């Protein structure tokens, strides 16, 4: 038994999971622990690759030549997967990418009353002590799609990574779904 504030909480260990994580009955997890890292390129519904260009402060989906793809610069993402006690929310993930010799991680910031995607220089933390503007929940795009996903922002339910045409760019943005059962192809990432 553990005394916390004025109430007593019974803590019973029930399972030893991967990476020696001990799971308890009756407690909510208030932190994400890193599980594994996947290395992937991210494509939209038009088969364009997501490319990060920190010098221009933009991440956009682009058609690339084979030569451009070979460099991998700004397009090979590390998808940091975390353990969670709420599997129904999806797999918690964070994104980072190498551009030349520097690492950048993706986060969401409010700017002029609008949530925007930014890539900041640095490494993704090993552990988050609770909520974070870096975490997204990876979910299947539709129940029948096993290779396509959508990524919901952890701090705002119904807000997903998507692309939006801005001039000649298909820029990475956060987009709010109007209904939970809505299928929006701009959010489909494979």
UniProtKB/TrEMBL annotation:
Keywords carried by this UniProt record: Cytokine, Cytoplasm, Secreted
InterPro entries hit by this protein: IL-18 (IPR015529), IL-1_fam (IPR000975), IL1/FGF (IPR008996)
UniProt xrefs under SUPFAM superfamilies: Cytokine
GO MF: cytokine activity
Signal peptide per UniProt: none
Subcellular location: Cytoplasm; Secreted
GO cellular component terms listed in the entry, alphabetical order: cytoplasm; extracellular space
A single GO BP: positive regulation of cytokine production
Superkingdom of the source species: Eukaryota
Subunit note: Forms a ternary complex with ligand-binding receptor subunit IL18R1 and signaling receptor subunit IL18RAP at the plasma membrane. Mature IL18 first binds to IL18R1 forming a low affinity binary complex, which then interacts with IL18RAP to form a high affinity ternary complex that signals inside the cell. Interacts with cargo receptor TMED10; the interaction mediates the translocation from the cytoplasm into the ERGIC (endoplasmic reticulum-Golgi intermediate compartment) and thereby secretion.
Record-stated family: Belongs to the IL-1 family.
Name of this protein: Interleukin-18
Lineage, opening ranks: Eukaryota, Metazoa, Chordata, Craniata, Vertebrata
């Amino acid at each position: 038994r553990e005394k916390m504030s004025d109430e007593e909480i019974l803590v019973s260990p029930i399972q030893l999971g991967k990476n020696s994580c001990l799971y308890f009955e009756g407690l909510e997890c208030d932190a994400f622990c890193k599980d594994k890292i996947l290395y992937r390129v991210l494509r939209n519904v038009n088969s364009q690759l997501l490319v990060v260009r920190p010098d221009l402060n933009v991440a956009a989906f682009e058609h690339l030549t084979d030569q451009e793809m070979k460099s991998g610069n700004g397009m090979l993402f590390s998808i940091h997967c975390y353990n969670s006690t709420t599997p129904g929310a999806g797999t918690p993930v964070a994104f980072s990418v190498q551009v030349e010799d520097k690492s950048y991680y993706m986060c969401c910031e409010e700017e002029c009353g609008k949530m925007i995607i930014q890539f900041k220089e640095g490494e993704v933390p090993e552990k988050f002590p609770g909520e974070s503007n870096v975490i997204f929940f990876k979910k299947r795009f539709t129940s029948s799609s096993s290779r396509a996903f959508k990524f919901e922002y952890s701090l705002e339910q119904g807000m997903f990574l998507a692309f939006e045409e801005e001039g000649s760019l298909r820029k990475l943005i956060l987009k709010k779904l109007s209904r939970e059962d809505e299928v929006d192809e701009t959010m489909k990432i494979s």
